[in-house]
Amino acid sequence: MSKYVSAAGVFMIAIGISLAVAYWQGPHSFVFAWTLNFMLMMAVLHFTQTFKPRLNAAYFRPQDWEAGGKIYKWIGVHGFRKLLVWVGWEKLNKASNPVKKSLEALKQLEHGTRQSEFGHLIIFFIVLPIALFVGAYYGFRQSLWLHLLNILLNLYPMAVQRYNRPRLQRAIRLIEKLQTEMNAINEDRRHTP
Hints:
Elements: H1 2-25, H2 30-51, H3 70-74, H4 77-87, H5 89-96, H6 103-138, H7 144-191
Helix pairs in contact: 1-2, 2-6, 2-7, 4-7, 6-7
């Protein structure tokens, strides 16, 4: 029960801070758009860390139209990844989540792509109606910060996760295959006189 209370509390704090900033700066301001996205990131991260959803739905499997990541290259995922390196996000992320050279670490990293995508997907679909409402009420130009930050902070990170996941899955399958072959070789050696 305390998990639910904790998650509800974090969401209430995120909503409260976002509403206070909307009242203070206006829902069409950059400050509100930035605060809303980061408060939602905090709340969703708390949710995923607390409840640890499995995220095994078919949605997370690579689709045929994503083969080779061509669509992601076309929309500029590589440029976005370079931006993450330039602003220091990659360095910060690697410092807090160092990549180890093991099959289990790769599996955790692959699951992390699903977790990250899930979080950004939720935030995207929370911010989108708010941006549409602000656009309808104040005019489209007044909702540009919400739309722009929703694309940069949610849509592109989802694309990066969908681009990276098949590569991680291929590496996992390759390592598992090699381990199976090595186990078979070792088993044969034990039974050979």
